[in-house]
Amino acid sequence: MAYEEIEIVSLGNSGEGIGILYSGKKIFVDSPVIPGEVCKVEIQQEKSKFVRGKCIELITSSPARVIPFGIEIPGANMAHMSYELQLRYKQDKVRDCLIRLGGVEPSVLDRVMHDIVPSDKECNYRNHMQYSIRDGRFCLKAQGSDRNVVVEGSPLEYEMFKTIRNVIEEVFSGYPTRLFDGVVLRGSERSGEALIEFVTYSEMPSEVIIRDAGSYLEAADLQAGLPDIKVAGITLRISNTATERRTRGGKRVVLYGNDYYTEILCGKEFKVKSGAFFQVNVPQAEKLYDLARPDNYAGTLWDLYCGTGTVGLSLACKGHRVIGVDISPEAIASAKDNASRFGIDAEFICRPASKITALLIRISHDDAVVVDPPRAGLDFSLVRSLIEQKPACISYISCDPSTLARDLKMLSDGRYVIERVTPVDMFPQTSHVETVVVLSK
Questions:
Q1: pTM of the model
Q2: Domain harbouring 191, CATH code
């Protein structure tokens, strides 16, 4: 086994450490390390242009380190460094991607890019957690692998989730079962409601699984163990194919209460169904949406990749129509219900982004468009349609700076200009960063 003593000089796109070997090759260190630290690295993979390794010993520690080396915190790959350094890393990552991949001139970014918006809460901000169940214990995946790590306490999850986890683990301990492979917890600190979804990969007939799960939870009397938490509902998701497991889809049934919980965002009460996308850091989402508010449009607000409709329904000007599109049936059902309760003139359509070209012909030059795509970014046909239809302005909410840079390059070539760029820290203790870009013709 080969070892090298490496100084970490920078961090990569996923927060991995980067150093330079004596040969001049870059080495990517898949461990919680910080620029300026010197570490003993085990060489694990060597390619023609780079090397991958793992830090096995920290020789020199950075003053920005807040958690000792060797402590593993699943899902929080930057919890070992100070929050100030996390923010600086994310700001620099967005800037680097826009220059290097998007072709944006540094002088332009100097004019339009704002400082990153920090999170009010550095910990315990996530209203949505997905756990696997192994031997009756809640687990999260170790960084960069499929290895399960038992959750003792997470710096990301809502405090109420720890209470729910402990109660469910007590139930599993008293009534052992292999029926469940995972648990999804969702909830709101503002409404006090929680939604619990049990997940099974069992290939037994659905009616048998539903019967057994219902009988199990009825016997366990889970709600009795949570007197201080408003359990809005308990659902079961049957994901018995590889695709359903990967996409977190499958058959959903209600075992108790409702298939949704209530969240309060931008002064409105949203119903969030099990399986529907919703921003995980609510106070930060309000800042994010405010930054994405379209300027100077007189027509319809188009909310593409709309999820439960939160962006469009929160930002639509009084009297303006909203049209939202999303691939998730659960999200569209929530969006329609929310629009009806708010009394907003809205149309929500369940369709993948790659198949809405004909729909986008309806966009007029007076309309505004808000897009909030997944990490893969915008579908190429959608970008082409936006360039052809020329809405008055486009607000792009991105969760991946590299695909944002790619899409902005195409939109800029199509005669849109960047008005402002603002990174927002939605996910403290992780390497992920959201960015809001507002463009005009």
A1: 0.92
A2: 2.40.50.1070
